[in-house]
Amino acid sequence: MTDKKFIIVDGSSMLSTCYYAVLPREIMFAKTDEEKEKHYHKILHAEDGTYTNAVFGMIKMVVSLMKRQKPDYIAFVFDKTRDTFRRELYADYKGTRSKTPEPLKDQFILMEKLLEECGFMVLYNDQYEADDYAGSLVDRFKAEASMVVMTKDHDYLQLVDDEYNVRAWMVQAKQDKADELYEKYYSAYGLTKKDFNLPEKVFEFTADHVYAEEGVWPHQIIDLKGIQGDPSDNIPGVKGVSSAAPLLLGEYGTVEGIYEAIHEAENDKTSLKELQDFWKKELLISRSPYKAMTKTSEDELCGEAAARLSKTLATIKRDIPMDYILEDFSSGSYKEKNVKQWLKRLDIKESSVFSPGR
After folding, report:
1. Element (H, E) at 313
2. Consecutive 10-residue runs of the chain (358 residues): their mean pLDDT?
3. Which of 73, 176, 235, 346 could form a disulfide with 230 if both were Cys (CB 3.0 to 4.6 A apart)?
4. pTM to 2 decimals?
5. Domain architecture of the chain: domains with CATH
């Protein structure tokens, strides 16, 4: 197994996290967009008015990543638009998300430019999302390097693969949550966070951790979302089957497997009763999900149609055409001097990002 490490950073997730982490209280607690806009001037900005609060936080993260984790290869993936191919499949995909505030939108463009000028490979496209590029990079290079995806988005858990040493660095909301996970999984071995070379607030997920936390294996995350849905992306799932989903998937493996069992039994009352008895007595599902799983309607997306579409929406693409070779992502292209030039341009103190003497 290669000892070369390739880190793929979900730039959209990280920049958004940095933006909301240091917003003025007046904006955080404002009830309307108009009220928020009145306080935009209080957001950290350069002398020329350029907003910098998100960029500042992400630059610190990147500099620390390069200094402490020392990846051999690194890439940053971003969402460019919500109107990707998934919207063509389901018009309401991500339909419940609020509009990206202008101060954050401006910093996406700024951050992408900054990263590129500092020697990093930055990937984004009108048709695909950040996780599609991450999935395609993982599949393209997992035989050549140990792959890590760094994100807050649980969709990425489907990429975890112990066979190829693909891990997910899941950024937790607070360090306390990360510490709880280290305590839960490593205290028995006498290990703490200090024994791992990982960024702050990060816990590394292996396939076993995915199963322990989600109730399914990484390759089943798409099936889990097919049934449970995902409110953050407005993926509908099948209403009323949430808690039964991991139990059904533990028995049948996939959304398709569940419906194969249902279709085999539903034309015979005795077989259908036996199936539901099996769910209750053997799988320990207290309330039968049969009606919800088989509901049909001309007015709403539900039942099998909802499950199959939701699974498709949740599935990360892994085959985006790309001509890159591994060395295109070499960390040796990193230009620290360019970072410092950008800090000066944005009126950010170098000492707030780099340790004294750097």
Report:
1. helix 303-314
2. 90 96 93 94 96 97 96 97 91 89 95 97 95 98 97 97 96 94 95 91 97 97 97 94 94 98 95 96 95 93 96 97 96 97 96 74
3. 235
4. 0.95
5. 5-152+161-205+325-352 (3.40.50.1010), 220-314 (1.10.150)
